[in-house]
Design a protein that fits this description.
single chain; about 230 residues; alpha/beta; Nucleotidyltransferase, domain 5; 5-stranded mixed β-sheet; 9 strands
């Protein structure tokens, strides 16, 4: 089994993990504003605990999104830097895949709906199915929509903070505490690595589902004026 160093910072929770064989160790830090400062010290602590150097790893994995725009850029940038420095390949892992795997592992769900709060009144979501211990297979690929636009097939077990952020739209409940974590990123990356699904540091890119990340103040004023004009028409 490869040695995989994984980084996940797509939400308020930042985590890093080191996977060796069947053993995974990890560190976690909460607070989105501190991700860029906390990740490297956590990585250094993991490598020291495992008594290995970066060059001993086989690949660097990162949660590629969807998620916080700043967060996925942070994970990608750190992964690229480490990969360049260590001359290692990179494995991007979709954050919703990692959420689904966590739900499967913790709650035994074979059909999973992952729902991540995307802010701005929207959610990132995807549906997965597990079979024979394999990696999650996407039944419905990652998408961005209003909470009411989430239309799963059948009755999957739902997970993710989108359930609590938009509770009215997800009356069926689920496991809102399940979030992207570097442990599952590392586990999925090991499968991808074994299949040869790696990229170079230069090729590593975040996964963005939202073309427009934020409106400028001028655009907000224009939209407000347009809405006011419509109301007076």
């Amino acid at each position: 089994m490869p040695i995989i160093l994984a980084i996940e910072t797509s939400s308020e929770l930042a985590s890093v993990a080191l996977l060796r064989g069947q053993t995974v160790i990890s560190r976690v830090s909460s607070g989105v504003r501190t991700h860029s400062q906390s990740v490297l010290p956590m990585i250094q602590a993991l490598l020291a605990e495992a008594a290995i150097a970066l060059k001993d790893c086989d690949a660097i994995a990162f949660g590629s999104g969807p998620g916080s725009f700043t967060g996925v850029r942070t994970a990608c940038g750190i992964a690229q830097g480490l990969a360049f420095g260590g001359k290692l390949p990179v494995v991007p892992v979709v954050t919703l895949d990692a959420m689904a795997l966590a739900c499967h592992q913790r709650h035994g769900a074979s059909d999973v709906l992952a729902v991540l709060d995307a802010r701005m009144g929207e959610v990132y979501w995807a549906q997965y199915r597990f079979a024979d211990g394999a990696a999650p297979a996407a039944v419905l690929p990652p998408a961005l929509s209003a909470p009411e636009g989430v239309q799963p097939l059948g009755a999957p077990v739902a997970c993710g903070n989108g359930l609590s952020a938009y509770a009215e739209a997800f009356a069926g409940g689920g496991f809102a505490e399940v979030m992207p974590h570097a442990e599952q990123v590392a586990q999925l990356a090991a499968i991808a690595f074994a299949a040869g699904a790696t990229v170079t540091a230069a090729e590593a890119q975040p996964l963005y589902l939202r073309n427009k990340i934020a409106y400028t103040q001028a655009e907000r004023r224009d939209m407000a004026a347009a809405k006011a004009a419509e109301g007076g028409a």
